[in-house]
Amino acid sequence: MTKIIVGVDGSEASLEALRKASYLAEPLNAQIEAVGCWEFPRMYDGYLMMGIGGLQGER
């Protein structure tokens, strides 16, 4: 199956790209895959260095 991959970040431009992909997907019989990624802020590294990592799931 044909796939159209669109990067999204919440900006108007990325949402327009998703709309264009939707417009193209039907005549191409394609599946749309929206992909988003981000980078943790630099201050996040400091918490790991201080030993505060792995908080998810701890009780």
Automatic annotation (TrEMBL):
InterPro entries: Rossmann-like_a/b/a_fold, UspA. Residues 2-46 form the UspA domain. It comes from the Bacteria. This is Nucleotide-binding universal stress UspA family protein. It comes from Paeniglutamicibacter kerguelensis. The lineage of its organism: Bacteria, Bacillati, Actinomycetota, Actinomycetes, Micrococcales.
